[in-house]
Write a structure and sequence with these properties.
This protein has about 350 residues and is α+β, with helices and mostly antiparallel strands. The protein folds into 3 domains: about 20-70 and about 170-200, no CATH class; about 75-160, Orthogonal Bundle (T-fold), CATH 1.10.3980.10; about 210-335, T-fold. About 30% of the residues lie in helices and about 25% in strands. It has helices at about 5-15, 45-65, 90-105, 115-125, 135-140, 170-185, 275-300, and strands spanning about 25-30, 35-40, 85, 150, 155-160, 190-195, 200, 215, 225-230, 235-240, 245, 250, 255, 260, 265-275, 305-310, 315-320. The strands form 5 sheets. It has an 8-stranded antiparallel sheet with strand order 1-2-6-7-10-15-16-17, covered by helices on one side. Strand 6 (about 190-195) and strand 7 (about 200) form a beta hairpin. The termini are far apart. About 45% of the residues are buried. The model is unreliable at about 1-15 and about 345-350 (pLDDT under 50).
């Protein structure tokens, strides 16, 4: 008679010891001027909330460091007088260092010192007119990634021209998403997805019962597609929503730092790879490069997957790595960079 209660007690103990299954929960707030969504898979609601709060705090900290809109940000407080070093925090220094490296690799198609040109175009868009040649030329004289000096030991940033400033519009969101993901991994919550507008970073552990985080991407030029993200990032760039049309000519919000001119050809790019900041910057650089020069650019980014669509006088042209950014994860060495550009036989009309 004594064996039965003991057996039942053992059964109850075994049931209590069974680990709780992870649940998926999403949290959203506004930061960096966009919606931030953090999705976490964990057994306890308190742990999911704590992880999301940690990620959101990191995104806000990145905004305070990198914003060119907030007058109080570190980025805005950089000395604009030549040869005057400014001591900065880890986030701003790391972002600048990586941005300068990408500017060098992309031959200036992406340039974090583009701020004077961006400001000129913002003013022009607000007036509904193009910036005049003199204004663009004056802005260009204060742009050049080669004119930024970094001292890692002192953690200082110095401009070698007067009136220079940094703009992380094509880098900061991917950078913030990547740092938010890293913070959650370090805290013991590796199953998550961080979305800072169109820049997404997935943690290294899949949600329960799934091979990864399923994402649907659309850029307004090519057909929408799905990808399964795991321990990777993905970014898109294009002029689907941000542009100005003057005298029947469409001018994108994306500007070629080398010429100071906004892109006129419709273009969109999607990049997938191991680092969110690099994906963000590379998507911008690929829009500037277009389908024609995309292959040359991508050969310097081993393991990154990308596609670029350009609509110009020759029609719709598309270039993509093999495989492209769609689909499931694959080994970095499996990604090829072909030269060929495809021209769809029956391209759909691009969205306006």
């Amino acid at each position: 008679m004594l064996l039965l209660p003991l057996a039942l007690a053992g059964s109850v103990a075994a049931q209590q010891a069974k680990p709780a299954q992870p649940e998926v929960e999403s949290f959203t707030e506004i930061a960096m001027g966009v919606d931030i969504t953090v999705t976490v898979a964990a057994p306890k609601a308190a742990d999911r909330l704590a992880a999301a709060r940690l990620a959101m705090a990191e995104v806000r900290a990145c905004d305070e460091a990198l914003s060119d809109w907030q007058a109080s940000s570190e980025c805005r407080r950089l000395a604009s007088t030549r040869d005057v070093p400014t001591v900065v925090g880890d986030r701003l220094f790391s972002a600048t260092e990586r941005s300068i490296e990408i500017a060098r690799i992309t031959d200036g198609r992406f340039d974090p010192t583009i701020s004077p040109i961006v400001q000129a175009w913002r003013t022009a868009r607000a007036k509904g007119a193009l910036p005049d040649t003199a204004t663009v030329d004056a802005a260009r004289s204060r742009v050049g990634w080669q004119e930024v000096s970094l001292d890692a030991r002192a953690r200082t940033i110095t401009f070698r021209r007067d009136g220079m400033a940094l703009d992380f519009g094509g880098f900061g969101k991917g950078f913030a998403a990547q740092r938010a993901s890293a913070a959650m991994v370090a805290s013991g919550q590796p199953s998550h997805l961080v979305a800072v507008a169109g820049d997404l970073v997935a943690g290294p552990v899949a949600p329960p019962g799934k091979p990864g985080w399923t994402i649907r991407k659309e850029d307004g030029l090519s057909e929408p597609f799905e990808l399964v993200l795991l321990g990777e990032a993905v970014s898109t760039s294009g002029d689907l929503e941000q542009f100005i049309e003057i005298d029947g000519v469409r001018h994108s919000h994306i500007i070629d730092p080398r010429t100071g001119q906004a892109l006129r050809d419709r273009t969109a790019a999607c990049v997938r790879g191991p680092d969110g900041a690099s994906c963000d910057a590379l998507a911008t650089a690929l829009c500037v490069a277009g389908a024609r020069d995309a292959a040359t650019l991508m050969r310097s980014f081993a393991g990154y997957r990308a596609s670029v669509t350009t609509v110009d006088a020759h029609g719709v042209r598309t270039w993509s790595t093999a495989p492209g950014p769609e689909g499931s994860p694959c080994a970095a060495e499996a990604v090829r960079v072909p030269d060929a550009i495809t021209v769809p036989a029956a391209a759909s009309q691009p969205k306006r």
